[in-house]
Amino acid sequence: MRVMRTLMRWLLPVILLCSFCSVAFWIFISNNNVIPHPASRIPQKASNTQSCKACKDSVIIGKALGNYSNSWKKHEANYKRFRLLLNEKCHAVSKAVVTQNNTPLGSNVVYDGERRKPLQVTQALYNILAKEQPFGNATWESCAVVGNGGVLANSSCGEEINSAQFVIRCNLPPLDDRYEKDVGNKTNLVTANPSILHEKYSGLMERRRPFVESLHSYGQALLLLPAFSYGHNTPVSLRAFYTLEDFGREGPLPIFLNPEYLRKLTKFWREQGLNSVRPSTGLIMASLALEICTNVHLYGFWPFGKHPNDSRPITNHYYDNRESKKNVHSMPSEFEQLLKLHKQGVVHIHLGECQPAHR
Ligand SMILES: *[C@@H]1O[C@H](CO)[C@@H](O)[C@H](O)[C@H]1NC(C)=O
Ligand SMILES: *[C@@H]1O[C@H](CO)[C@@H](O)[C@H](O)[C@H]1NC(C)=O
Ligand SMILES: *[C@@H]1O[C@H](CO)[C@@H](O)[C@H](O)[C@H]1NC(C)=O
Ligand SMILES: *[C@@H]1O[C@H](CO)[C@@H](O)[C@H](O)[C@H]1NC(C)=O
Ligand SMILES: *[C@@H]1O[C@H](CO)[C@@H](O)[C@H](O)[C@H]1NC(C)=O
Description:
Layout: H1 2-32, H2 51-66, H3 76-89, H4 92-95, E1 108-109, E2 119-120, H5 123-128, E3 140-146, H6 158-162, E4 166-169, H7 177-183, E5 189-191, H8 194-201, H9 209-214, E6 222-225, H10 233-246, E7 253-256, H11 259-271, H12 281-292, E8 293-299, H13 333-343, E9 348-350
Parallel strand pairs: 3-4, 3-8, 4-5, 5-6, 6-7, 8-9
Antiparallel strand pairs: 1-2
Helix pairs in contact: 1-8
One 2-acetamido-2-deoxy-beta-D-glucopyranose binds near residues 309, 310, 352 and 353.
Family: Belongs to the glycosyltransferase 29 family.
Protein name: Alpha-2,8-sialyltransferase 8F
InterPro entries: Glyco_trans_29 (IPR001675), Glycosyltr_29_Sialyltrsf (IPR050943), GT29-like_sf (IPR038578), Sialyl_trans (IPR012163)
């Protein structure tokens, strides 16, 4: 007991420091979420001091729009080719989630961002892993991956998003009445980065009911936790798991993102020419969707501070204007990749307003 206490006294500051770093990191990741970020080079507010940045912004937006077409048509062969490639290299269906199948008792989970300190799968950890892949053999006819970009505000896309068979959302976005018209309220999978668990729910070290209650809006969705990116992400993610378990099995079903899948995905996108440390949550979800869905629709993916249609200034997220703290992505290069796929008829990026009862 005494040893534990002394250990804790020494460890606590270290842990706090680590979790602080992880928060900072995940803020970066989550802000990169979806919005494959522009921030550092492209100012969010074009009216800022340096008008030259603003004109650069316009040029990039112009180029991007040049590659965008509203009248999208799926190109079956391109889609199949890309999907097959992803399938060969990443195999989301068997790898995306840590399961008892792909992660046996006694094996090691190798952290994505901390390779040298693997986590051994104890009986306790093993017991809470999903028994099998939640995606099984399922191929959904249509999937909507909803990014949190400000481009969704006033888009009236809610109905269209709800009409998808499988709806994926990123980082516990708000879905209340204020936003339902624009983003819908159906959710089949939602991600929760450790940063948001720290920011909004005190890292689940205090009252946990607010967390559980706020998850009601996602119904029975899968709650995807990137628990094994860094060692310090694990405890808070496990607390999320246990909280949901303790409060009854009515809410979302927590599952853990597989760091091995993340590594494969990072390599895959590097080979496609993406020069970033690792894909954002938005790109990870889009990649997952490409393997498990026949038709992939992306909403809220638009990494610029101006609306594509009429150049009106838009906020960073559809629900707030929080800027990313720091950013190593110098260009919205993820968006460029997705735009390429849009152009090739592989994924359908939706910008601008949706027509009512569109599909
Ligand atoms: C648009 O497409 C052209 C040619 O395919 C490419 O060179 C350019 O980088 C693309 N621009 C953007 C912003 O995606
Ligand atoms: C997937 O399909 C194969 C063959 O059709 C079947 O043997 C297997 O049980 C299925 N797995 C799941 C998880 O549905
Ligand atoms: C959305 O519409 C409301 C009401 O018309 C307006 O006040 C708000 O600025 C709009 N938001 C965006 C991001 O365009
Ligand atoms: C979505 O909203 C509709 C109408 O407001 C409601 O009937 C439905 O239960 C909601 N669905 C979810 C998953 O919250
Ligand atoms: C684009 O803007 C024009 C007016 O500038 C408006 O009439 C139109 O509905 C908008 N379209 C979309 C898709 O946002």
